[in-house]
Specification:
alpha/beta; single chain; 495 residues; six-stranded mixed sheet; disordered N terminus; 16 helices; elongated
Length: 495
């Protein structure tokens, strides 16, 4: 005899016996609903360290294509996929470098003092050779080097070079990044190096590819054409003033976005970055697109075992703003305390989410211009407010339904059962969603049954609990969610 599970109002059906060896893994289950993105690097360059990151709460692993080679990246991916068998599945994001401008080689470096004059340009003492940046440079411009720690004022053009005055000095080393403030260059966002890295990422089986220095929606066309046929999500990094101005169109084309505060702080006035962060998060949520907040979140923990009070407040407020995920960069890639950073993030997130229950961010109403899935997601979120409802159980092929349910930030857990492993991993970046892989259903009744059975088997649901279930008819087709019901988990014994 076999016990099966059914919903009030649905005829009991015989449970399908899953084949021996079928993998049903729960992903992204932990004490916080906010997801954590960790950048991989030398500090976590062993299988043991990556396992420790996963155990500490890493939901998404970021591969920075500006550094390292693909042999090492493929090894990291292999370790992550192997460790998933014992731990939770992890999404993998390949972050393309984009058009990066850098100074050339200056030997042992130059000590710059505020107020002095220097020269930049081709064959100058501070060599800048890229024609795009030289063509855009003019007297009166501000030039930032590195992460903005060194600043120049452009005073005059002298032949092929530019005379500059040092505003903020320091020790300048070779190959530092160059930013010409408030200037736009005639250069493609998707470079030849990006195309090579994207092909490597696709072959390696990543879940997301991020494009840097997006200015408008058309910049995403090439990477979307490469990634989408493989089911890979495209992340638009919002770090330029142009991208902020075209955000609605970018959100319509991208699968997720990143508030890339590092380069944003060089491209726009630094004091406007917090406002842009809040606006991007709000608009991304309204569009039902996941959003990652990144850069210097726990920067001091690169060398210190504890963060600053300001950093803790920054992470806390990003979560209250409504971000889906918070990202660690150098903290985990090159820092001394990578695993401790993840644990710290989780503790801050737990506090912020507890506070957010009593002080929720503004909710969204259903937009009549959106499709029926959005309406069902809102209804599921509202029905989940009933005191006897334990959770929302979504069944999804593409992951669209749980993403839209998450947009409304329900106060109950969101569980998604899917027959696609790729969808399970891609939900690793979505706020509040715990995803599990189930067998491929053949009927709507079987879809509901297998979904409930999956989460019951993992201890997330209990007998006699009530859940809100969303599903689609016919099953297994993306974008056809058209069913919502209250389900009471009960036992039936088959003779």
């Amino acid at each position: 005899m076999r016990q099966i599970f059914w919903a009030h109002g649905i005829r009991p059906i015989t449970s399908k016996i899953w084949p021996a060896g079928t993998s049903i893994m729960i992903g992204m289950i932990g004490p916080t609903r906010t997801k954590i993105v960790c950048t991989l690097g030398p500090a976590v360059g062993t299988r043991e360290k990556i396992r420790a990151l996963m155990a500490a709460g890493m939901n998404v692993a970021r591969l920075n294509c500006s550094h390292g080679d693909w042999e090492q990246k493929r090894q990291w991916i292999e370790w992550i996929r192997a460790e998933e068998k014992a731990l939770s599945p992890v999404g993998i994001l390949a972050d393309l470098q984009g058009p990066k401008f850098r100074i050339g080689s200056i030997g042992d470096g130059i000590l710059l003092t505020a107020g002095e004059s220097r020269f930049v340009g081709p064959e100058a003492e501070i060599p800048i050779n890229q024609p795009e940046i030289l063509a855009a440079m003019a007297a009166g411009d501000r030039l930032l080097l590195g992460d903005g720690e060194i600043e120049f004022a452009v005073e005059a053009k002298v032949g092929a070079q530019f005379q500059i005055r040092v505003i903020t000095g320091g020790y300048l080393r070779s190959h530092k990044g160059v930013t010409l403030v408030d200037k736009v260059f005639a250069v493609d966002a998707f470079t030849a190096k990006d195309a090579e890295d994207a092909q490597e990422a696709i072959a390696a089986g990543v879940d997301f590819i991020a494009l840097s220095y997006v200015r408008e929606a058309i910049d995403l066309d090439e990477i979307c054409a490469l990634a989408h046929p493989h089911g890979i999500g495209v992340c638009a990094k919002i770090e330029t003033g142009e991208a902020i101005a075209h955000l609605d169109a970018i959100l319509a084309k991208a699968d997720l976005v990143m508030v890339a505060r590092g380069d944003m702080g060089l491209q726009v006035d630094l004091e406007s970055v917090p406002r842009h962060q809040k606006d991007i998060i709000h608009l991304a949520r309204a569009a039902g697109k996941p959003v990652i907040t990144a850069t210097q979140m726990l920067e001091s923990m690169i060398v210190n075992p504890r963060p600053t009070r300001a950093e803790v407040t920054d992470v806390f407020n990003a979560i209250l703003d409504g971000t889906d995920a918070i990202m660690l960069s150098g903290e985990t890639a090159t820092g001394v305390y990578p695993v401790e950073c993840v644990a710290t993030m989780r503790r801050i997130a737990a506090q912020a989410e507890s506070f957010g229950v009593a002080h929720p961010v503004p909710d969204f109403d259903f937009n009549p211009e959106n499709d029926r899935t959005d309406a069902i997601a809102l209804a599921a979120s509202r029905i989940a407010n009933l005191p006897d409802v334990t959770a929302i159980v979504c069944t999804s092929t593409s992951g669209q339904t749980p993403r839209l349910v998450s947009k409304f930030r329900p106060n109950k857990p969101i569980y998604c059962a899917t027959h696609r492993k790729q969808t399970q991993r891609q939900l690793s970046v979505v706020w509040g969603v715990s995803a599990a892989e189930m067998a491929h259903p053949t009927t709507t009744q079987e879809t509901v049954q297998l979904a409930v059975e999956t989460f019951l088997a993992h201890g997330l649901l209990k007998m006699d609990c009530t859940v809100v279930v969303t599903a689609g008819t016919p099953p297994g087709e993306p974008g056809n969610t058209n069913l919502i019901e209250l389900v009471k988990v009960r036992k039936v014994v088959n003779a």
